[in-house]
Design goal:
The protein contains 17 helices and 18 strands. It is of the alpha/beta class and 520 residues long. Helix 9 links the parallel strand 13 and strand 14. The structure holds adenosine-5'-diphosphate.
């Protein structure tokens, strides 16, 4: 484990911006990353502070989150209206470190139950442009009021994209931000924060920013494109995704500007939180286990079957899946082959919330096969841990996957993943057929996005589970022993920050690593 006295990096002030941070708010992997990465950077000796919106559900009693008032009555004019905001202070405290959190309170914009989508209508809030404009402006106001000079503002996804443009526009002459550099991390290129051209008038940016070289995206204002165009460096969450996003197939229309910024794009693989996702000390599972006590995983499987309302039978493989119910996650492939899975006498457990078509499909299937399929529709953190621990096989047939955390959680919990070879899945799972003397297998992969290929990979997994017990055990152990910690990736981010802040300093030790993972 790296320590806070690591001499490699001068301590830097880093404002980490993310609109979801675990345990305050979470819709997906971004929240996990936005909690664990700041902690890992803090352990490298940096002064990392994070800021996110205070949504309506944050601070409710059951959440056990402590908030205190920090800055009151900060006013903005948005779209001709006066709005008043507050900033609250809180902290992520673990046995390893402490992260200072600031939460932006706004009756007008954030005191709601949804984060980006209105739960009542299932559609994006119509004022998301204003909501995340105020969030971006608050980042600057926070620093000004605290007289805190950030060396780096690390922005995540479209919700934070405007910050990079504002820094190059209205805030460029502010002495506090004179030397500040921005990093923009793309966790998912498909979510772009695109708004009508009329949004541009609200932003307070010079006209020259509304061009194809800037944040204009086919006549619209794109917050994601702002991040890509104006950040000093761009990162994505795996090396393979960093390549993929520059192709028309995965580029979501942004491949042009991404190609232009090719030299500034870095693929840095996500890690996993060693405290929250650890089978040896996971408070959500019925029996902690480790490589030396792998037999105890069976107790977790029994508990999972019980929790999902399906019978436990020794030797029957349980296949797990946790994901937002969207096309991205490959549910259409699953729908095509679900009968085959059931005919093979396996059981399937699914946790997810999202698109209606999948909600209806899984509700129907569960009614038809109550003993073989367990479904939980909704967001349930505790159950997610139980599925990682109790399943034998984990399915991720994603159409694209920027990094993916669940396959890493699975391997860490001795649950063998079956994944499509794309993005971070390709970078983290080693198929039996691709294994070498030095790289032992940890899962099963398939390339073509088609149901047949997916089924063949599942079949191979089921056969190995049932007939090749020694290999199966080896795969579990290899996965559990793999180093998925943040330590290495946090160092890569720290190196990148240094490169931005001291571009002329000759390369020292850590710079060599950047060459190993060249900008793509
Ligand atoms: P993405 O960020 O695309 O949603 P990842 O695999 O990177 O996918 O991360 C998903 C994270 O969200 C994991 O921590 C996963 O356990 C969690 N998650 C997704 N859906 C649910 C759900 N319905 N209930 C609980 N946790 C969920």
């Amino acid at each position: 484990m790296t320590t806070s006295s690591n001499p490699t990096f001068p301590p830097r002030s880093i404002l980490f911006l993310s609109t979801e941070v675990y345990p305050y708010a979470k819709t997906g992997g971004l929240a996990d990353v936005s909690s664990a990465l700041p902690q890992a950077l803090r352990e490298l000796g940096h002064d990392v502070r994070a800021m996110m919106p205070k949504y309506g559900f944050i601070g409710e009693k059951k959440q056990k989150i402590h908030l205190i008032n920090r800055l009151q009555g900060i006013e903005y004019t948005v779209g001709g209206r006066e709005i008043v905001t507050n900033l609250k202070s809180s902290a992520i405290l673990t046995q390893r470190t402490r992260i200072q959190m600031y939460l932006l309170e706004s009756e007008e914009y954030f005191q709601r139950l949804g984060m980006y989508v209105d739960p009542e209508t299932g559609t994006d809030y119509p004022d998301n442009d204003e909501r995340f404009l105020v969030y971006a402006l608050s980042a600057f106001e926070l620093c000004r009021r605290l007289l805190w000079k950030p060396d780096i503002i690390h922005c995540n996804d479209w919700q934070c994209g405007l910050v990079t443009a504002l820094l190059k526009g209205p805030f460029k002459d502010d002495p506090l931000f004179k030397d500040t550099k921005t990093v923009f991390t793309i966790h998912n290129l498909a979510y772009q924060g695109n708004f009508p051209a009329s949004t541009f008038e609200k932003l307070g940016l010079p006209e020259s920013f509304f061009t194809p070289e800037g944040l204009e995206f086919f006549g619209q204002v794109s917050y994601l494109k702002a991040g890509i165009a104006y950040a000093d460096a761009i990162t994505t969450v795996s090396p393979t995704y960093a390549h993929e996003i520059r192709t028309p197939e995965y580029g979501c229309g942004m491949e042009g500007i991404l190609a232009k910024r090719k030299r500034d794009i870095h693929g840095i693989l996500n890690g996993i939180d060693p405290i929250v996702w650890n089978p040896q000390q996971d408070i959500n599972i019925v029996r902690p286990f480790s490589v030396d006590k792998l037999a105890d995983k069976e107790e977790c499987k029994k508990d999972l079957c019980f929790a999902m309302g399906i019978p436990y039978t020794e030797g029957t493989p349980v296949l797990g899946m946790i994901a937002r119910l969207t096309d991205q996650k490959g549910f259409d492939l699953l729908a095509e082959i679900v009968d085959k899975i059931l005919e093979s006498e396996a059981q399937l457990v699914i946790l997810g919330e999202g698109e209606k078509k999948y909600v209806e499909l899984f509700t129907r299937l569960q009614k038809k096969y109550p003993k073989q399929i367990g479904i939980h529709l909704g967001f349930h953190d505790n159950l997610a841990h139980k599925i990682e621990a109790g399943s034998d096989i984990f399915l991720m047939p994603s159409a694209y996957e920027p990094c993916g955390l669940n396959q890493m959680y699975s391997m860490h919990y001795g649950t063998v993943p079956v994944v499509r070879k794309t993005g971070g899945l390709a970078d983290t799972v080693i198929d039996v057929e691709d294994a070498t003397q030095r790289t032992h297998p940890t899962g099963f992969t398939f390339e073509k996005y088609e149901a047949r290929a997916f089924w063949r990979a599942i079949e191979r997994a089921l056969r190995t589970y049932r007939k090749e017990k020694t290999l199966w055990h080896q795969m579990q152990v290899t996965g559990m022993k793999r180093d998925f910690s943040w330590d290495r990736s946090a160092v890569e981010y720290a190196q990148l920050y240094e490169k931005l802040l001291l571009p002329t300093v000759p390369s020292a030790g850590p710079e060599r690593k950047l060459e190993e993972h060249p900008a793509v």
